[in-house]
Design a protein that fits this description.
The chain folds into two domains: 200 residues, Rossmann fold (3-Layer(aba) Sandwich); 208 residues, Rossmann fold (3-Layer(aba) Sandwich), CATH 3.40.50. Helix content is 37%, strand content 18%. It has 15 helices and 18 strands. The radius of gyration is 23 Å and the shape is globular. It starts with 12 loop residues before the first helix and ends in a 14-residue tail after the last strand.
Length: 430
């Protein structure tokens, strides 16, 4: 049965009207499955890719259970990164206001005092990262006995970055008869263990993606000598002519250094990494949203939870340490019906990691040789010394694809892709 609207799912009229004002009119599959289960009071495990609408899937039922007349904390949403927590809070806050509820954002890296004041003022919904939330639970600034609904968002990453002990401690502190939901792009062993220990006979909602459900991302692998990576990145950025781009690096030092070098080239760029104060990280991300910069250089701290309208391109300056990180990095683009581009720079030492990513994706990614590209450009240069024609990509099926084109499918002819400036931005779904 096709769900036509949020009203069909039992969502309150004022919430539906707010969503419609944002051009969000049709539930995504994860929302259609999870909202009725959560409305019924069931514990839920929702597995779906980044950008599938998980935030609204748990937020809308949560708001239905909030008593705006009671000033105690009633719901808790945990996220693995500060950026994701901020993103969630930005979605929840305007909807909560319609239910006479307020949201307290609880993050590490900033002062405790404003957070304590927000809690004591009567915030019914707490959105935060596990470490700081646990601190405030242990000091009774968050009153555990009032929490009736708990959400773990991106639970797989909580384990990956060492938050498992804090999450377990929080869940042990909260009332046993609460409703708990867990959302994750993948379900590794720890997530299953959490589910078995802390959820009560949960309903599982696992969405198997078909090709039509996957993000529309044109993947490329550039084989680039280690010493020429900066040159390759510069070329990509110059060719993209100001398209919003995230460049991912592996380490804080690498990201800081790359950001400085790109800025020295005259590009509109800034960087974020985990050692920066949270206020500084938030300012940089806001600059990207406000089109004050075109390029964000970031560690994996930006691989989840960062939702930027119109982000057209992701560059992996190096191959991520884990295949799942590739999915999360590249998932920053090609969201909500848009088409994105992902370029991963690979040297000989990275080939094994690349093969692991391809096994995860179930397909071989098209490769381009940076050395061959430069040689071809040199041989086709005109009298001015500049190349007179673009360099083509050779896809995995052997079809030559010019810049701005993408393969429509195995063995098919290329289809011309409109420039980013001409593409209509799709309606947002959260």
């Amino acid at each position: 049965m096709t769900i036509a609207s949020f009203t069909d799912l039992g969502v309150h009229t004022d919430l539906v009207s707010n969503l419609e004002s944002q051009s969000i009119t049709e539930p995504t599959p994860i929302q259609a499955e999870c909202i009725p289960l959560l409305h019924a009071g069931r514990d839920v495990v929702g597995q779906a890719r980044t950008g599938s609408g998980k935030t609204l899937a748990y937020t809308l039922p949560l708001l239905e259970r909030i008593d705006g007349k009671q000033t105690q904390q009633q719901s808790l949403i945990l996220a693995p990164t500060r950026e994701l927590a901020e993103q969630i809070a930005s979605v929840v806050q305007p909807l909560a206001a319609l239910r006479n509820a307020t949201v307290a954002l609880i993050l590490g890296g900033v002062s405790y005092d404003p957070q304590r004041r927000a809690l004591s003022a009567g915030a019914q919904i707490v959105v935060g990262t596990p470490g700081r939330v646990l601190d405030l639970l242990e000091s009774n600034n968050i009153v555990a006995r009032g929490i009736r609904v708990v959400v773990l968002d991106e639970a797989d990453q909580m384990f990956d970055i060492g938050m498992a002990p804090q999450v377990e401690a929080i869940l042990r502190t909260l009332p046993g008869d609460r409703q708990t939901s867990l959302f994750s792009a993948t379900v590794p062993e720890w997530v299953r263990e959490i589910t078995n220990r802390h959820l009560r006979t949960p309903e599982w909602s696992t969405l198997d993606e078909g090709p039509e459900d996957r993000p529309a991302i044109d993947h490329e692998v550039w084989i680039v000598p280690e010493v020429e990576r900066l040159e390759a990145v510069q070329q990509i950025l110059e060719d993209s002519k100001g398209s919003p781009t995230i460049v991912f690096g592996r380490t804080r030092h690498q990201v800081s250094r790359l950001g400085v070098r790109l800025k020295d080239l005259g590009l509109r760029v800034d960087s974020i990494q985990g050692a920066m104060p949270q206020a500084a990280r938030s300012r940089v991300i806001q600059r990207l949203r406000n089109n004050e910069i075109d390029i964000l250089v970031a560690t994996n701290v930006a691989a989840r939870g960062l939702d930027i309208d119109g982000l057209t391109q992701v560059i992996n300056y190096d191959v991520p340490d884990h295949p799942d990180l590739f999915t999360h990095r590249t998932g920053r683009t090609g969201r909500m019906g848009g088409v994105g581009r992902s370029i991963t720079l690979v040297s000989g030492a990275d080939l094994n990691a690349l093969h692991q990513i391809e096994r995860l994706l179930g397909s071989k990614l098209p490769r381009r040789s940076w050395t061959a590209m430069k040689a071809e450009a040199a041989t086709t240069a005109g009298p001015s010394g500049e190349s007179e024609r673009p360099v083509a990509t050779i896809g995995s099926n052997g079809v030559k694809v010019l810049p701005g084109e993408r393969l429509s499918g195995r063995g098919r002819s290329p289809q011309r892709r409109a420039p980013a400036s001409e593409r209509r931005r799709p309606a947002r779904t959260r």
